[in-house]
Design brief:
heterodimer; A: about 260 residues; mainly alpha; MetI-like fold; 11 helices; flat; B: about 270 residues; alpha/beta; Rossmann fold; six-stranded mixed beta sheet; four-stranded antiparallel beta sheet; 10 helices; about 20% strand
Chain lengths: ~260, ~270
């Protein structure tokens, strides 16, 4: 009897059954997915040849295309990403504060702020861009607003969570000293979340550089326009220049962000 | 240490503001607090605290000492009862009048509750936030007289050389000195101290108590103090209030506190031997 009680197993029979069911469902889902996608075998076997062919058409790159069209578009992309990020910081700050349950202890307001943040995130940058192109016409303005509106959800959510993790002690101390609410926020919450805020902002700027590179595909300005033109005309050597430029800028942004982040934290 | 010794001496012979003490007394009537409905932590506490000297509240953990102190400045909302201070019932104040009452009441915390990423000087000036507008706080446009006073207080608490250091660079004892100086910056009419020495070693605890007793005696500020250490309470307090089970079970002079009382407050007796 005692020996029985002392037998140890990692899983109970019930857990084992559940795990087996899970694996079974996973395999079934994979099989169904492959059937739905309808892979055409001829195209699949053909793929290596096509890749080699594509690279042959891309190389050598048409470097003259860079000064002609890519450079100006690249600068525009950087403007879109940076302005869009700055705009989103201004909009996300108040929404993030309203979403933090400890800073604003009113559930209805928290829920509303979270709804705003989720709406911003649930729409892809390209879809935001399509909407703003429809409203403001094609160009960098639509791109900037698309970046800003997509970023509100990201920055606001992370900033709100940073606020919720803030230590309650200094807040109590300043409240006990009779400080009005804005002063409590400025001197007790803000110093605690400031590094997180700038770190989130830099991270989002990094993402926005990448996202704004493709906005041109839907007419929202930037380097994506140059990419779209080259793709439409099947000038693969020019496509290669644009792709190489985007790659270089993304790497550069990554290096800049990592350097600054290590300084402020 | 010499500065503190001199201060205590000055306090002993020169309580010139005796006339003020009338406005600094506190009167608690039937104070009850229930965090969970039907389970009161404080069961109708009534206490009159004179406008001078240190009143120490002792009692086992979870008996509501901290809740009692926090009800006075409304960091905790009382369920029922009255707290009379300077002609106002603190339990009923709201909004602006609550803030104005709070800035007359300083508080010292067990975990110091400094703003870690701000300088020592700015932590002291945080004690003045109840008196200046948020815009001035944002622009750091503090009153030059307050800055002057903050430097003086830093010298008194022995941290004159630390004004520009960040608070998170200080040791526990140094942080509590900043905490006390911040509370005194408010020019309070009452000082609340919630276990101010519980996170400190025995020697630092005594030094912190000496500093707090000296500074408050000098400015004639009454102190209500929660403390676990009965010896420290007897050494520094003029009056001891013993709490158990949400009631006051002892109220008297430190010299009158006997082992019988301690048994009644903390229960059992084996620990007294």
């Amino acid at each position: 009897m005692i020996a029985d009680q002392r037998r140890w197993e990692r899983f109970t029979p019930r857990e084992r059954l559940l795990r087996f069911t899970f694996y079974l469902v996973a395999v079934a889902a994979f099989v169904v997915s492959v059937q739905t996608v309808e892979v055409i075998p001829e195209f699949l076997y053909d793929a290596p040849e096509q890749v080699v062919d594509l690279f042959a058409r891309m190389w050598p790159m048409d470097l003259k295309y860079y000064p002609k069209a890519v450079h100006a578009a690249l600068i525009e992309t950087l403007h879109i990403a940076t302005l869009g990020t700055i705009l989103s910081l201004g909009l996300a700050l108040p929404v993030g504060i309203l979403a933090a349950r400890n800073v604003v202890p009113v559930t209805a307001i928290n829920q509303f702020a979270k709804l705003v943040l989720v709406s911003s995130r649930s729409v892809n940058s390209l879809v935001w861009a399509l909407l703003f192109v429809a409203v403001f016409g094609p160009g960098a303005l639509a791109g900037t607003l698309a970046i800003a509106f997509r970023s509100i959800g990201f920055v606001g959510k992370l900033f709100g969570e940073a606020l919720e993790e803030a230590n309650r002690g200094p807040v109590e101390a300043l409240t006990a000293a009779g400080a009005p609410w804005p002063s409590v926020f400025l001197k007790a919450y803000w110093p605690q979340v400031q590094p997180a805020f700038w770190s989130i902002a830099l991270f989002r700027w990094d993402i926005n550089i990448r996202e704004s590179a493709v906005l041109g595909l839907v007419g929202a300005g930037g380097i994506g326009v140059a990419l779209d033109t080259a793709l439409t005309l099947l000038y693969w050597d020019q496509v290669a220049v644009v792709l190489a430029t985007i790659f270089a800028v993304v790497i550069l942004a990554e290096i800049i962000v990592t350097t600054i982040r290590s300084r402020i934290i | 240490m010499t500065a503190i010794g001199a201060m205590t001496g000055a306090a002993a012979n020169g309580s010139g503001q005796a006339g003020m003490t009338g406005t600094r007394s506190l009167s608690i009537r039937g104070l009850t607090k229930e965090y969970v409905r039907g389970k009161p932590v404080l069961r109708g506490i009534s206490l009159d605290i004179a406008g001078q000297g240190i009143t120490a509240i002792i009692g086992p953990s979870g008996t509501g000492k901290s809740t009692l102190i926090r009800c006075i400045n409304r960091l905790v909302e009382p369920t029922a009862g009255e707290i009379w201070f300077q002609g106002m019932d603190l339990a009923r104040l709201r909004g602006r009048s609550l803030r104005e009452a709070r800035r007359r009441i300083g508080m010292v915390f067990q975990e110091y509750n400094l703003v870690e990423r701000l300088s020592v000087m700015e932590n002291l000036l945080c004690g003045r936030l109840g008196y200046i507008s948020p815009v001035r706080a944002w622009l750091r446009r503090f009153d030059p007289a307050d800055i002057e006073r903050a430097f003086e207080l830093l010298d008194i608490v022995g941290l004159g050389a630390f004004a520009t250091q960040r608070a998170d660079a200080l040791s526990g004892g140094q942080r509590q000195r900043v905490g006390i100086a911040r509370a005194v910056m408010q020019r309070p009419d009452l000082l609340l101290a919630d276990e101010p020495t519980s996170s400190l070693d025995p020697k630092t605890s005594v030094e912190i108590m000496e500093l707090m007793a000296g500074l408050t005696a000098q400015h004639d500020i009454p102190v209500i103090l929660n403390i676990h250490n009965v010896e420290l309470a007897k050494r520094f307090a003029a009056r001891i209030v013993g709490m158990a089970g949400g009631h006051v079970v002892f109220d008297g002079l430190p010299a009158d506190l006997r082992d019988d009382h301690l048994k009644q407050i903390y229960g059992g007796e084996g620990w007294l031997e």
